[in-house]
Amino acid sequence: MTRSAQWLYGWLLLLPAMALLALFTHYPAVATLWHSFFSTPKGARPAVFVGLDNYRQLGEDPIFWQALTNNLWFALGTIPASIAIALLMAVWVNGKVAGRGFLRLAYFTPTVLPMIAVANIWLFFYTPEYGLLEQATGALGFGTHNWLGSKSTALACLMVVTVWKEAGFFMIFYLAALQSMSPHLAEAAAIEGASRWHFFRRVTFPLLMPTTLFVLVNAVINAFRLVDHVVVMTRGGPDNATSLLLFYIYEIGFRFWDSAYAAALTMVLLGVLGLAALAQFWFLDRKIHYQ
Amino acid sequence: MTHVYETRGSLRVLETAAAWTLGLLWLLPLAYAIWTAFHAGEYSTRFVPTAPLTLANFVTAWHAAPFARYFVNTVLLVTMILAVQLVLVTLAAYAFARFEFPGRGVLFALVLIQLMVMPDVLIVENYRTMGTLGLKDTILAIGLPYMASAFGIFLLRQTFKTVPRELDEAARMEGCSPLQVLWKVYVPLARPVYLAYALVSVSYHWNNFLWPLIITNSVGSRPLTVGLQVFSATDQGIDWSIITAATLLTTAPLLIAFLLFQRQFVQSFMRAGIR
Fold first, then answer.
1. Could you tell me if B155 lies within 8 Å of chain A, comparing CB atoms?
2. Does position B4 have pLDDT exceeding 80, yes or no?
3. What's the pLDDT score for residue B272?
4. CA B6, B9, B11, B16: dihedral to nearest 10 degrees?
5. Rounded to an integer, what distance in angstroms lies between the CA atom of residue B118 and that of residue B131?
6. Does any CB of chain B come closer than 8 Å to the CB of residue A193?
7. Contact A14 B210 (CB under 8 A)
8. Cβ of A231 and B213 within 8 Å?
9. Fewer beta carbons within 10 Å, N or C terminal of chain A?
10. Is the ipTM of this complex over 0.90?
11. Residue A180: is its pLDDT beyond 60?
12. pLDDT at A95 over 70
């Protein structure tokens, strides 16, 4: 094939995918930035350039700061817990534990269910007076507590649901990595007299680093991308205690129809995701030793 | 598989017990939902083993909302997305894996951006675009932003790169055009990856919620997830037996498919995750 034919083929093969990507990923990302400098058109009044006004409003909006703080706590509460549980699950079902097939199934099942269905089930679980949780705490002699209705526990309740839903998903990747590990490593370490914990900490865990990074990136993205459970379980309440960034964007954009302010909020979210991407490259460069 | 670090004796019993406790705890919410859905309302919080089983909740739920239509919409949606994805992703991955052309690196970087900046977070602008295109409240509008999938392009490009050049060249010697080579050499060799990608894609879009909630507005275009939310958020309020029945109903196809093909599911997710 001639060089120009190569060029032509390459471009033509890419054309349909690139066109859709440009229309629904690149264009909206740039348009978000552009629209964040304008006011929201209302009725006959067109959008006018307002410079950084939307960002100024953002700085003074206590609900935005609360949503951002909530989201950071949410990420901090769900990511390490789900990764640790996933690793533990993977080590268990990779070994010769009794009923291994059943356990794999049990751990993984929440992953295939839609978050919206899962949230419905957990909503019932947390229901005051009727819910299973209330019955269990009641049987143990504790008083009743409105788990989702009180500011101190609502966000934690959502975190539990998220960890429950995601740990099995991450387990799969650890399991794949564990299965591709050479058994000679363990044999050699055992001959050297290394303890099981020592072997895990000095050999297994470092070798799992690329998997941990992959899982970590996914977990960070999900912590900022998935708000289905907020919509179903709390609608951001009580008193914005469970409002996450994307949920707040959804409320501003589609309940108050303030698309300009929603654009400014989206820029913050894109900034957070961009930081996560940069951190990933930085880590890839220095911290990870591939086999 | 290694056995040198298998635990023995009482430690082993303890570990098995811990693994099982976690497993049962993980199944508990689902088991609770199944119990509630198959029993009359008065048993939904009383766990009497002899409580009579009933399908009445499912019947009530099925007639209380147009779930049949929602099912059709979701099946149409996931089929349409997957079909377009497979074609676009294959062509793009082939270009990146086997063709030399100016701008390849930049274009690939532009594709990878979508791994971080997903359509899920660009809801405000994509809603505006759908308005301009006159596509609001259609099934096509739910699917369009997801049809060019960076994840799929990346996954297939990796696979295509492992295909030996000799096979490619041999097919060309016999007079195959580049597209024929793609169809006869690359696609058959990547079949397991296609299966993995298809399972991931179908379960993702069967479960997707926020964007469909925003862009749809009527029974004719709502997928199951949105239909379920509309159903349980309105006046069903207290009747948990019916809500859980509806919840199980909407997830049943995926759950049953998962139980039947769990080995393939798990392997697919594994394969899709290894980069």
1. no
2. no
3. 65
4. 70
5. 20
6. no
7. no
8. yes
9. C
10. no
11. yes
12. yes
In sequence order, what are the beta bridge partners of A38?
A49
Number of neighbours of residue A221 by Cβ within 10 angstroms:
19
What local confidence, expressed as pLDDT, does residue B244 receive? 85
Instruction: Give the chain A residue nearest B37 (alpha carbons).
Output: A121
Roughly what angle, to the nearest 10 degrees, separates helices B67-98 and B104-116?
Answer: 150
Q: Which two tokens mark A189?
A: 């370490």
Q: What is the 3-state secondary structure (H, E, C) of A134-201?
A: HHHHHHCCCCCCCCCCCCCCHHHHHHHHHHHHHHHHHHHHHHHHHHCCCHHHHHHHHHCCCCHHHHHH
Mean pLDDT of chain A: 86
Q: What is the DSSP string of A75-109?
A: HHHHHHHHHHHHHHHHHHHHTT-TTHHHHHHHHHH
B191 touching A (Cβ < 8 Å):
no
Rg (CA), chain B: 24
- CA-nearest of B14, B273, B17, B3 to A103 is B17
B47, B89, B153, B156 from B150: Cα distances, Å:
48, 8, 5, 10
Q: Dump pLDDT digits (tens) for B235-274.
A: 555 677 888 888 888 888 888 888 887 777 777 766 666 5
The total number of residues written for chain B in this structure: 275
> What does each C-alpha distance from B168 to A280, B102, B158, B256 come to in angstroms?
35, 22, 16, 40
Number of neighbouring beta carbons within 10 Å of residue B117: 20
Q: Which tokens belong to A10?
A: 């390459």
Give the Cα separation of A172 and A86 in Å (integer): 8
Asked whether the beta carbons of residue B92 and residue A18 sit closer than 8 angstroms, the reply is: yes
